[in-house]
Amino acid sequence: MKKTEKNVRASRSSITRRGLMLGVAQAGIIGVLAMRMRKMQLEQADDYRLLAEGNSVKIRLIPPARGLIYDRNGVLLAGNEQNYRVTITREDAGDVDTVLADLRRLLPVSDDAAADVMTEIRRQPPHAPVTVADRLSWEEFSRVAVNAPALPGVSPEVGLSRNYPHGIDFAHVLGYVGPVSDYDLSQIENPDPLLRIPKFQIGKTGVEAKMEEVLRGRSGQRRVEVNSAGREMRELGRKEGEPGVNLQLTLDTRLQNFAHERLKGESAAAVVMDVTNGDILAITSVPSFDPNLFVRGISSADYRGLMEDDHRPLADKSVQGLYPPGSTYKIVTALAALEAGVIGPEDTVRCPGYIEVGGRRFHCWKHSGHGRVNVIQSLEQSCDVFYYEVAQRVGIDKISEMAKRMGVGVRHDLPMSAVAEGVAPTKAWKQERYGKDWRIGDTINSSIGQGYVLASPLQLAVMVSRLASGKAVTPRLIRSMDGVEVPVPAPEPLGLQEAWLDHVRKGMIAVVNGAHGTAGKAKIVLSEWKMAGKTGTSQVRNISAAERARGVISNSQLPWERRDHALFVCFAPADNPKYAVSLIVEHGSGGSTTAAPIARDILLFALNDGLPPLEAYPSSQRKAVQSRFDALDLVDPDTVGTGAKSRA
C-alpha cells in the first residue's frame, strides 16, 4: 500500500515536470512568434506594404567621387563637377519607344542620339539604366523631374563628371577619362560592378589610367521604393561609398604652363627635372589637345582634326617619342671612353673634317675640321670625328652599357601612357632584331647619336640629371597620396669617377660659355645661374655623296618634315646643379639656333620660380626676349588655383 502511494506521487511529480518543460517551450515559441510578428507589423511594415501595393525595393549603386589630382603646390589639375543627367531602365519603362518619344518632347535629343540610346538599351540587361542625356542645364533637368511621374523608368539624376581646369597644359600627363567600353571590360578578370553603370567613367590614358584603381574609389548603395510603373517613389536607405584617393604630383603648374606656351607653334617636347631627387617639375608635349572634349564626348570633326594634324597633338612626345639624340649622346660616348681608359682627359684626336673607314668617308659637321681637340674641346665644339675615333676604341657594347647607366635605353617607371624604352644598341641587339652582324660603321654612327640609337626627351633629362648630380636619380611623378608623402629612396652613386664626370661637365659649360661653344647665343649672363648644356642636331634623311659634292641643301630649303630635329640638354647652376632640362623641336633644323634658346628660357623660369628677369640675358637680346614674353598666354600667379590666365 505504501509502495503504491509512493509510486503515484513519483508519477505525478514526473508529469508536473514534463508539463512545466512543455509549457516553457510553448511560451518560448509563442514569444518568438510574437517578436517576429511585431517586427513584421512595426519595423518591416513599410516593406510589406510595398509588396501589398505591388511596389518593390531595389538596390542602386552610388558612384563614388573620383579622387582629385593636384600639382606640387596644391593647385587643382583634375576635379569633379556636378552633372545633371537622365537615365531610362527598360524593365521599368515598359514601352521604351513611347517613353523615349515623350522624353524627347522635353529634351533636345537628336535622332542619332536616340538611335544610340535604343542600341544601348537592347545591349544592356533589362535592369540596367541607360543614360539618355547628360550635362543638362538646370532648366532641362527640372523639366524632366517635374514630368517624371508620367515617364515610367525615367530617372533624373545628379552625378559628378571629370573636369580639367588647365586643359591643354596637362593633357598628355593627366590623360582623360571616358565611359567604360566592352574592350575595357574584356581586359579585367573580375570587373567591379561599378564599371557596368552606364557611362561610368574610367581613366583612358595618362595618370588617370595608370592610377585608375586608387582614383576610382568604392561604390555606395541606396535602397529605393519603385512602384509597379517603374517610378522611384522614395529612398528607403543609403550607404555612402568611399571616394577615390587624392593624388599630388611633382609638377609645377606655372612652369608647365610656361614650357607649353614657350613651345607653342612647334612640334616639340620638354622635360624639367630636379637633379637632386628626380622630381619632374614639367613635362610637356606640343601641340596638345583639350581633354575635356573627350570627357564630354568629342565630335567626329574635332577628332578628325586631331588625327590629321601632321604635328601629332595626340602623341606624347615627351615619353612616347623616340628620336636620334644627335650630339647630346656624345656625353655618353665620352664617359664610356674615359671609363674604359681608351682616352685620357688631356688626350687629343685630330679632326681633318672626316675619317675614312672601310672605304667609306664619315664627315664632321664642320667641313674644314676642328684640328686637334681633347674631351672638353670636342664637347664645346661638338666635333664628330673625335667621337668616331674614340668609339672605335671603346666598342659599341661598352657605349651601350654606359647609356643604360645614364638612363638611355631604359624604360622609366612613370604612371604615364606608353613610356618608351628607347634603343641603346649592341651587337647582340642588331643580330636579334635584324639578323645581321654589327658593322664598324654602325659604331661610328651610334657614337654621335645617329644610326640605331633612339631616346626620348624623358631619358635625356635623366641622362643630364645623373651627370649633373653624379647619382642614379630616377624620375618621379607622384609626390603624395591622400596627403601621405611617397617616400623617395636616396639615389645611389653612379659608380663613375668624379674626375670623369667633372670633365664632361666642364665640356658642357664650355658649350654655352666658351669662346667656341656651339650654344654661345643661349648664354645666361648672371653668374649665379651659369648654365651648362649640349646641343644636338639629328638628321632625318640621308645625305648622298653627290649632294655633298655639289653642296648640302640647307634645312630652310627643305620641306618641314625633312628638316633635322633640334635638341638641347642643360643643367644649372653649373657649380651647384639644381635643375635639368631636355628639349626637342621636331624638324627644328638646329639645336643651337632653335632648341637652346627655348630650353634656356624654361630653365631660367625654374630657377627664378617665375618669369625670368631680363638681366639674365645678354643685353643685345633683352628687347627681343621681352617681346617674346609679352606674347605668351601665361597663368596668372594670383589666380593660378582657378586655372585663370592673363597676359604676363
TrEMBL record:
Keyword Membrane attributed: yes
Pfam families named in the record: PBP_dimer, Transpeptidase
GO molecular function: penicillin binding; peptidoglycan L,D-transpeptidase activity; serine-type D-Ala-D-Ala carboxypeptidase activity
Subcellular location: Cell membrane; Membrane
Transmembrane intervals: 20-37
Coiled coil location: none
Entry keywords, A to Z: Carboxypeptidase, Cell inner membrane, Cell membrane, Cell shape, Cell wall biogenesis/degradation, Hydrolase, Membrane, Peptidoglycan synthesis, Protease, Transmembrane, Transmembrane helix
Major subcellular location class: membrane
Annotated NCBIfam families: pbp2_mrdA (TIGR03423)
Descriptive protein name: Penicillin-binding protein 2
Source organism: Paenirhodobacter huangdaonensis
Gene name as annotated: mrdA
